[in-house]
Structure prediction request, 379 residues.
Amino acid sequence: MKKFSFFIFLFCAVNCFAQDSIYTRNVINTLTSKAFWGRGYTKEGMKKAADYIADAYQKIGLLPMGTQYKQDFSFPVNTFPGKMMVSINGQKLVPGKDFIINNESPGIKQKANLTQIDSLNYQASPSINISLKDKLTWSVATEVGEITTIQINKNYFTTIPKEINVDIENKFIPDFQAANICGLIKGTKYPDSLLMITAHYDHLGGMGADTYFPGANDNAAGVATLLSLAKYYAAHPQPYSIGFICFAAEEAGLLGSRYFVENPLVPLSKIKFLLNLDLVGTGEAGMTVVNASVYPGAFALLNHVNNQYHYISKINSRGKAANSDHYFFTEKGVPAFFIYTQGGPSAYHDVFDKPETLPLTEYKDLFKLIVGFNQKLME
Prediction:
């Protein structure tokens, strides 16, 4: 009878917290707002996001994983803080929508005629290349190249591009300051055993003074889900300790998670399993688990929970991949899954990854699946 009552309590508690989608939406709306400027490298976007998450940890009641919530580190990065002007045939293009600058490009100010190389590529001078693209996808570079490459939405052109005028400002920062945000809820029976939940909070920041990349699905949704889970576990402590890490610099090459693995705030051997959440704001077409084939026993356990309660329509298995912050943990022998959902809007690494079009289709079910999976891991 006591065991039955416990499961009734757990069911009600999980459903109560999973229904708290208002909090989740508020976190996503805040992290994607103009004030946070894409959580990147200009206008203190990443720092503002780090401060916001650390404050959320404190309000929820997490303990710092180290002496403080922030684990500071630095790395080089190429940024675009100011001028971002490109015109073709005398018509100015809109940054982010009509064109993007390759992330490793140096700044340049030049007016030149265009020479066609092939159907998709042009050259303005030895220092400027033009590439026509179906989709504009931006990223982050930790070095500066020698040539400025401009990607232009090929649907923009109604006439043959003949002349280009460019005025672009870049700024290379050799020691950009960033921080992982690390918190902990102590276990009630086995505090030295940890389950870890992680998500990166950085995104692409801004390209110029007027254009930023909101990063709703990538990865404000992951951070919001992590914070919602932190609220749940703070109210319902578990036998194992539960750790929460929001990584910086994932978009720059998994730099935050690599730094943590090289400078762990808890012994890596004590982490019994890690769940990394990235791109979890959809789910109409199911979800995929990276490392599923590496840890078949854990994947079978996840499917057992899902099959029992019919949370997610389809869980796809994927092998090892260095595509998010789970990777360096796995390389050090920490069992880890990287979970991402599928379906819904296709916006990715562009200005269209916005909160208003993010459906959060499977947020509640994913929340309950993670709680159920973690419960099984602790049995």
